[in-house]
């Protein structure tokens, strides 16, 4: 069954709400959980679900994403018609960038046709979740649908961020509104509404027909959520698929990490005692590229008062190549080759690769991008007005975000 399915991963979004983390990279290439990139979760879902034909559609600032996929995801056998290929914008229609998610697929119809599959699975490369797509495909085929949308309940006050659906007892989609100002609550739960996950299954010929019709509509935004899906209501066999998390069996763990606060909270989920997203499940590995680095190292254990120096981490994730040289880390995520020097403290923070924290520096509730050097004695996250004056981004919830450095020290 899965041999007849092509997965299309849309990975070309600007991710402007994630700046400065997307200043030099596409949103799906933003690091997550220390060792991963956001797109690794969608790609891992494909591999774990038995999908072996995958096209990744890129656009903005794709160099980092291309490099990551080439390093970590080139293990399938082309001779067996298995592949994960990157499709950059080809301007086959005109000289414009993709005008929307549907236009991105439409402009690649030539490449998609050559794959010769019966079904197309359209995915986003910027969500964090674990999902068995084989169950979704089977549901789609057995229902006789022409299109199927994966969905899950979300809080009513967050409904204006998603495509909101109304379905009947047979899972037929009755209504679909993209980011409505006043989303309709679910009949059995007035505090939640039913949201689209941006995961769609189409019969291939049916999708091509819809894309060609949409492409000639001058009033269309050429977007799946705004145009393609709403146009199918009452005209096509459109079904909903209630999502169930691979580990919990519940329909809850799915994160759209489209804002700085959202990506911070999703990372912090991982350092809890019993995280909903289980990265340690041997039956559902999350794959990525792992550089050849030594294990993390924790040095110094001088506990004498009044100036103890202990290199340690608690309730944290620490990746290979990192050295805690007399510094203390708690409830944090450290990427590859991070160094925390003596008497420094890092709390409730996310440090990307090759960050160095100077002696006696104090970091709290911060996201620090690659290659940043924090000078000795500097404090980040303790005086938000001072952090703003330094040019750092401070979110509504008080998270300080520092963009990628150039190897030099921060200005104080």
Model description:
- By secondary structure, the protein is α/β, with parallel strands linked by helices.
- The protein folds into 2 domains: 2-269, Spore Coat Polysaccharide Biosynthesis Protein SpsA, Chain A (Alpha-Beta Complex), CATH 3.90.550; 297-402, Hexapeptide repeat proteins (UDP N-Acetylglucosamine Acyltransferase, domain 1), CATH 2.160.10.10.
- The protein contains 9 helices and 31 strands.
- The strands form 7 sheets. Strands 1, 4, 5, 6, 8, 9, 10, 11 and 12 form a 9-stranded mixed sheet that branches. A 6-stranded mixed sheet has the order 18-21-24-27-31-30. The chain has a 5-stranded parallel sheet with strand order 14-19-22-25-28, with no helix packed on it.
- Strand 2 (31-32) and strand 3 (36-37) form a beta hairpin.
- The longest helix has 12 residues, at 204-215.
Instruction: Find the structural class using helix and strand composition.
Output: alpha/beta
Number of domains: 2
Tell me which CATH architecture of the largest domain applies here.
Alpha-Beta Complex
State the helix count: 9
The CATH fourth-level homologous superfamily of the largest domain: Spore Coat Polysaccharide Biosynthesis Protein SpsA, Chain A
